[in-house]
Design brief:
This protein is an all-alpha fold. The protein starts with a helix and ends in a 9-residue tail after the last helix. Helix 6 crosses helix 11 and helix 9 packs across helix 11. The protein has helices at about 1-10, 15-25, 30-55, 115, 120-135, 145-155, 160-175, 180-185, 195-210, 215-225, 230-250.
């Protein structure tokens, strides 16, 4: 379990079905595996919130500052052969199995499989849906298009095809060029960005890969570029949320809906 959690935290794009199979073979039922994934992904969210805005300890501590090296995906082998089971013979919704809900999905647009896995707990499922809608809804500080660009960029960095697919559809509906979506989906920031947007994308990459290395100077840079503290909080929340969603989708092998019809 700890090996799985470590991989989910540091290298989520390397997770394969075999990782889940090993948990099941060790005695963890699918419901417990879901809890492991959701709990671990949630702490990836919380850690980025704390590091991203510099939340201070409420108690005395001797924990040193981070000097951990960056874990760029280019330094790891991303394409891994899953020898456990051919993809074509896999009939489950994902790598784990849950009873289908008799309730119709809320809305026909947007990701559904991500929430179908939570069917046994409708309250948690609807809270997760509301959480995503809240993060992706535009504000005066971060409009919908910029949020989607950042979300697609982070999903590209994490090699999360599921999130990238849905965010790309949202961006294209807003009039974004397909070439820009493809670039963002590969984990590359748009070319020729204004200083403010360049800093936003730099902050998003930092929070995605090395959140503990966020310094107060980085926050000052964002302020100088015209983002107030409320905007910095919204940016941090968005980046932290995407780290959560990407890990849930990657850890459970959530398939894109068009591939399951």
């Amino acid at each position: 379990m700890l090996e799985f959690v470590e991989k989910l935290t540091l290298y989520p794009w390397l997770l394969v079905r075999t990782d889940v199979t090993r948990l099941r073979s060790a005695g963890f039922p699918d419901t417990t595996i879901l809890h492991i994934v959701l709990g671990s992904a949630h702490f990836n969210y919380l850690n980025r919130m704390a590091d991203g805005i510099g939340i201070r300890f409420e108690y005395q501590t001797e924990v040193p500052g981070s000097s951990s090296p960056s874990s760029e995906p280019q330094s790891a082998k991303v394409v891994v052969i899953d020898s456990d089971l051919p993809q074509s013979s896999h009939k489950r919704l994902a790598w784990i199995e849950f009873p289908e809900s008799n309730e119709p999905p809320t809305g026909s647009e947007g990701p559904q499989n991500l929430y179908r896995l939570m069917s046994p707990n409708p309250e948690a499922r609807e809270l997760a849906r509301e959480w995503r809608n809240y993060q992706m809804k535009g504000t005066t500080r971060l409009d919908t298009r910029l949020r989607s660009q950042l979300g697609l960029y982070i999903s590209g960095i994490n090699h999360c095809e599921y999130s990238a697919y849905w965010i790309s559809k949202s961006l294209e509906s807003l009039g974004e060029l397909r070439s820009v979506c493809e670039r963002l989906g590969s984990g590359k920031a748009p070319r020729d960005l204004p200083t403010r947007e360049e800093l936003l994308f730099t902050h998003a990459r930092r929070l995605t890969h090395e959140p503990a290395n966020t310094k107060e100077d980085h926050i000052h840079e964002l302020r100088q570029a015209g983002l107030d503290d409320q905007g910095i909080l919204q940016l941090t929340m968005l980046c932290s949320y995407l780290s959560f969603e990407n890990r849930v989708a990657l850890a459970l092998g959530v398939p894109i809906e068009s591939e399951t019809s």
